[in-house]
Amino acid sequence: MSAKRAAQLGIDGTRTSGEDVRTVNVTAAMTMANIVKSSLGPMGLDKMLVDEMGEMLVTNDGATILKKLEVEHPAAKVLVDLAKLQDDEIGDGTTSVVILAAELLKRANGLVQQKIHPTNIISGYKIAATEAIKYLKENLVLKVSDLPKDCLANIAKTSMASKVIGSENEHFSKVLVDAINSVKTVDDMGNYVYPVASINILKQHGKSSRESSLVSGYALNCTKASQQMPSGVKNAKIALLDMDLRPIKMKMGVQFLINKPEAIEEIKQREMDITKERIEKLIKAGANVILTTGGIDDTMLKYLVEGGVYGVRRCKKDDLVRIAKATGGNVVTTLSDLSGDEVVDASVFGNAERVYEQRFADDECTIIEGTKNGCCASIILRGANTYMLDEMHRSVHDCLCALSRTLEANAVVAGGGSVETALNTYLEAFAVSMGSREQLAIAEFAQALLVIPKCLCVNAALDATDLIAKLKVAHVQSQSKKEKDDQKFWGLDLLDGKVRHNIKAGVLEPAPSKSKSLRFATEAAITILRIDDMFKINAREDEDEMMRQKGMM
To answer: CA 541, 543, 547 angle in degrees (round to 5)?
Structure first.
């Protein structure tokens, strides 16, 4: 609708409706998908993002790419949120979920142009997604316990195949599997959980990525406050302080009225003594390691040195929270009790077998080993420069998330386009059984799933038409002939340009990743497809600016 017509309706802006708004939304969604499409798969390419300050970012992670783009179109923002949701829920598969959602929208728009009502399309998409997830769980999922011991390593290798650390997959797969197993815990419901947040990842310049290592314990990217402090402490009692250990300064607005100059020195001395007394109380209570988010004044360091205490200042609050969880301690924000007196309760201290300093490249780190709860580990990443380390960090995090979701769900599926092709074959047969208009939507949903294996072939410089045809034949036979049921795990071999049994080849993905991708992509496509009107309100000028212009007139 034109601006003139919108004004007649009392709308201060423009209105776009019907086919126009759908075409605009689909175009925006396809634009977002085309940006990340070439980065899908083990042969995917990287993107370089440069902001207005000249800061550069090189990555092929779909969620990171879309997050860094300043997207303004409302429909495109839905896909950005979709990638973020997939990243938060699963940690991997962010690129494929955006590509799938855009393809679903594109095919839905084609059906609308054929005079199929959006309501029928939405209904068909919902049925297709439900049936696809049901078939996936019943026929394509394998339990981790039924597979060889190298199953977890293969999942890590598959996840990092498209990452910068893919060339060192043997080394990193071992490191990551050991790391995720070391944080195994039991939740309140009695289920085993593998919290990725319990794994601390530190980045250190120098050496090659193969020098990256796993540290048993929590690695803190801080060092002791004084070289005279002990380099290590056994049977550590750790005080975790979210407060300053510097001379107390009175707050703004506090005034002292004095009648003699000597009182100024007494005030300064008392400010020093308050902090000194706090340190003495901590040491007396048994603390031999003090970690604080604030500073430790140089004049106070001597009391820590004399007490044989290992003190670290300027720690991050997040690190202290994780250390508190691992060591069984509490983060202390004040020493005051209910009566206002400052006391130290030894029960708030964390416990660890050993706290020591270790040097990596040019920096020293504090390592906390043998924690009470034993659910922490640290990975030290080594790389040539900041860009390399940042991308390695993102890659390692994605792999850890994939391993965590696999272990918690105890389920994997074959990778390399196997799941998408199997679901395409099943849904095509299922669509024929529907005697309504939803049949067309389900058929288009099935065709949209093939966009994933097609992109994998194109990015690997292979003939997509030929390989997809061979893969399709294998899956049709698996669903029609019982003796060839094992072919349902066949997928693409992008290195040799052929199809193969991807379970035997070790190309595995977490089952939750596929089911969530289907569900999220369908919901995002339906959300955008429901839109048939868009009102864009004109920006209003500032009232002062308007008054100034009136004054000039």
So the answer is: 110
pLDDT digit string (tens) for 45-54?
888 888 888 8
* φ, ψ dihedrals at 543, nearest 5°: -60, -35
DSSP category for residue 15: E
Alpha carbon distance 250, 256 (integer Å): 10
∠ CA 138-141-145, nearest 5°, is: 125
Helix (H) or strand (E) holding 241: strand 232-241
Concatenated DSSP letters of 52-101: TT--EEEE--HHHHHHHS----HHHHHHHHHHHHHHHHTSS-HHHHHHHH
| Residue 2's pLDDT band (cuts 50, 70, 90) | very low
Binned at pLDDT 50, 70 and 90, residue 20 comes out as confident
Taking CA atoms, 244 is separated from 23, 315, 321, 455, 502, in Å, by 58, 11, 17, 55, 56
Helix axes 438-449, 118-135, angle to 10 degrees: 50
**How far is the C-alpha of 386 from the C-alpha of 57, rounded, in Å?**
10
Say how far apart CA 103 and CA 518 lie, in whole Å: 12
Residue 10's pLDDT is what? 60
Catalytic residues: 61, 94-95, 398
142-164 residue pLDDT tens: 998 888 888 889 999 988 888 88
Other Cβ atoms less than 10 A from the Cβ of 15: the count is 17
Cβ atoms of 348 and 235 closer than 8 Å: no
Query: What are φ and ψ of residue 329, in 5° steps?
Result: -100, -175
DSSP label at 138? I
- Count CB neighbours of 100 within 10 A: 27
- In angstroms, the CA 378 to CA 389 distance is 15
Q: Give kind and range of the element (H or E) at residue 413.
A: strand 411-414
Both tokens of residue 47? 């993107």
What are 60's two structure tokens?
Answer: 């092929």
Answer whether 512's CB lies under 8 Å from 407's CB: no
Rounded to an integer, what distance in angstroms lies between the CA atom of residue 76 and that of residue 98? 10
